[in-house]
From TrEMBL:
UniProt keyword annotations, A-Z: ATP-binding, Nucleotide-binding, Transport
InterPro entries, per database record: AAA+_ATPase, ABC_transporter-like_ATP-bd, ABC_transporter-like_CS, ABC_transpr_LolD-like, MacB-like_ATP-bd, P-loop_NTPase
ABC transporter domain ranges (all copies): 20-257
Protein's name according to its UniProt entry: ABC transporter ATP-binding protein
Molecular function GO labels: ATP binding; ATP hydrolysis activity; transmembrane transporter activity
PANTHER family to which the protein is assigned, alphabetical: ABC TRANSPORTER RELATED, IMPORT ATP-BINDING PROTEIN
GO cellular component terms, A-Z: membrane protein complex; plasma membrane
Pfam families from the UniProt entry: ABC_tran (PF00005)
SMART domains per record: AAA
């Protein structure tokens, strides 16, 4: 799966240049003396049709930021916009529908249904989204991800890399507005990881897919178009066209939070 990528899909003309953004977002866990301000007035714009990586020390707020952007969690203050939709004003039910219709997820643990074949796993979210499968698009995805001869296999009969590629095909099957990937290469060997990251980059550039990836790995983040660095719940750095060396050096300058302040 290193070359032979499928032909480029036409990017949607209705897509704005900013796929998602957070404005002055505050997220606090707990109350009183034990309150933790996981996001501390964070601002960030995610460019459409680009591959953005989010890095930062443990506890810096990466997962919380991703959950806020994906409407998985409520925030205490500020605004979260997905396209033109303000998630902060939506109730739980509307956020659930929005996630189903407009967002794709890829997790470190693949999260495939063990009793279903690869093909069934890939199209699983589509009936939920109320959409018939776009066969040509899914065939392209399967071919590009090199899964053509594995479609009838169940997850246990696939390698880790193949399972993750099935999970990526599933995340992209409904052509979501944005895909969030949380440590997608965390359980893969370096070769399978690099193949997956090459595909994510290709999906952004050639297929017009907006991708946000949380990672601890500078080599993984170097596949992205941009790396955003978080510390203490804020954006503290931003690198365009990053190299692993530049990422490492930036990470070294960002201290791990010694003791998180409660406010
Ligand atoms: N459900 C929760 N209840 C209380 N505190 C939480 C909760 N979730 C996260 N936190 C705290 O919020 C802060 C940010 O956590 P978050 O998981 O977003 O960080 P992270 O950068 O993703 O960390 P890691 O790299 O270790 O996964 C941390 O101090 C964490 O302990």
């Amino acid at each position: 799966m290193t070359t032979g990528f499928a032909p480029a899909a036409q990017p949607s003309p209705t897509r704005s240049a900013i796929a998602a953004q957070v404005r002055d977002v505050v997220k606090t866990y707990g109350r009183g003396d034990t309150a933790v301000r996981a996001l501390d007035g964070v601002n960030l714009e995610i460019a459409a049709e680009r591959f953005t990586a989010v890095m930062g020390p443990s506890g810096s707020g990466k997962s919380t930021l991703m959950h806020a952007l994906a409407g998985l969690d409520t925030i205490n203050a500020g605004q979260v916009l997905l396209g033109d939709t303000d998630l902060s004003g939506l109730g739980e039910r509307k956020r659930t529908l929005l996630r189903r219709d407009r967002i794709g997820f890829v997790f470190q643990s693949f999260n495939l249904v063990p009793t279903l074949t690869a093909a069934e796993n890939i199209v699983l979210p589509l009936p939920l989204a109320g959409r018939p499968p776009d066969r040509a698009w899914i065939d392209d995805l399967v071919a590009t991800l090199g899964l053509g001869d594995r479609l009838r296999h169940r997850p246990a009969e696939l390698s880790g890399g193949q399972q993750q590629r099935v999970a990526v095909a599933r995340a992209l099957a409904a052509r979501p507005q944005i895909v969030f990937a949380d440590e997608p290469t965390g359980n893969l060997d370096s070769r399978a990881g690099e193949a997956l990251l090459s595909f994510l980059r290709h999906a952004a550039h050639e297929l017009g897919q907006t991708i946000v990836m949380v990672t601890h790995d500078p080599n993984a983040a170097a596949f992205a178009d941009r790396v955003v660095f978080l510390a203490d719940g804020r954006v503290v750095g931003d690198l365009a066209e990053p190299t692993a060396a530049a990422i490492l050096s930036r990470m070294a300058s960002i201290d791990a939070p010694a003791t998180r302040k409660t406010r």
